[in-house]
Amino acid sequence: MAEWPEPGGQRGLMLEGPAGMLEVLAETPQSDARGLLLVCHPHPRFGGTMNNKVVHTLARAGLSADWAVLRFNFRGVGRSEGSFADGKGELADAAAVLDWGRQRAPGALALAGFSFGAAIALLLSEQVSPDRLVTIAPPLRYFSELEWGRETLPQPDCPWLVVHGDEDDVVDCQDTLQRLQESEKQPQVEVMAGAGHFFHGRLTELRQIVEPFLAS
């Protein structure tokens, strides 16, 4: 059985997933964890991995707010087996990693993700009812376009934070804001002026937004 890290430690793991083994990094805070934060990375077909700088920033924010943190590589990324599965398979990967983590880090649950990973976290929130949800540059058009074909966005029943740069050239910020206006669930929205998709030079500011939300 894969071992959980000691307080203040981290451990790389390989877990059985729906399409083969999944590469996972588990990290724990120095003090007692309030619960588990699962962080999902950007699109596998465009270089997204669990070592992405925004994903790393989300993990650091979670640890500072006393969450145990799980990051993982979706199928076909890094050492994870399998191949890209149009979001449905990646959602199953996230659910499998979360199920393993919940057995080892009881308590509250938070989900977070960046770009494609934000969409996966939002979908997963329908299945597991988290206590906190953080979505960074969420591509909300995924839910009405591509293969996902939904008429409405997921409606998480928990505090929900959306952070978006207004100079994002990958996921249009105005599209995100418009789709959120049409949503029944109104999240806390933070628009970072002058920030692009990858928040270059703005990661400290991003963490300063996310950390208090996770600590509240």
- Could you name the CATH class? Alpha Beta
Classify the secondary structure makeup into a structural class: alpha/beta
The CATH architecture is: 3-Layer(aba) Sandwich
Radius of gyration: 16 Å
Strand content: 15-25%
General form: globular
Averaging pLDDT over every residue, what do you get?
95
The CATH superfamily is Alpha/Beta hydrolase fold, catalytic domain
Distance between the termini: 33 Å
Unreliable stretches, pLDDT < 50, 5 or more residues? none
Number of domains: 1
- Named CATH topology: Rossmann fold
Please, could you describe this protein's structure?
Helices cover 29% and strands 23% of the residues. The longest helix has 15 residues, at 88-102. The N and C termini lie far apart (33 Å). It has an 8-stranded mixed β-sheet, sandwiched between helices. The protein has one domain: Alpha/Beta hydrolase fold, catalytic domain (Rossmann fold, 3-Layer(aba) Sandwich), CATH 3.40.50.1820. Strand 7, helix 4 (173-181) and strand 8 (188-192) form a beta-alpha-beta unit. With 216 residues, it is of the alpha/beta class. The chain has 5 helices and 8 strands; from the N terminus they run βββαβαβαββαβα. The mean pLDDT is 95.
